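As a warm-up, study this chain.
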Amino acid sequence: MKTLVLAVLNIVLLLVMPAVALSQQSLISDPEIYEKKHFQEQCKTAEFADGFIIRQDINNDGLIDAVVNEGQLTCDGQKGPQCNDDGCTYNFYLQVAEGGYFMIATAQIYGYDFVQRFGNMVLAMKMHPRFCDRTEGDPCIVTARVRGTKFVTISKK
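Now compare it with the structure written out below.
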């Protein structure tokens, strides 16, 4: 009987913990201010190109979200210091109706297009070929839709 009670408690905790973890993430007022402040503290001189932040609705909820492209940062004279063979770091933030934003994903990608598929806007992310089980060739295109607070992969090619 004791084992059954412990098993039920473990299952309840597994179901509740993701919601608790999400609720503990604090909202930020503006990802652009937040990210720029971070890099201004990390770099002696930080310069941000126009493409550093893109504001668009990435989860089809009517609210304008934000995508930060760290490849558009020049830190102490080095453009895109976090960029490598896998691409540059992109941070994806969702806006909530109550006001504020929270980060839902960070990805190392070459870039992305925002395209309409089957009536919904989706992200077509250009990634290293290994993400499509290839060692070389053209970039892999991973198409994902944001559902709720998660990226859902639709296709890889």
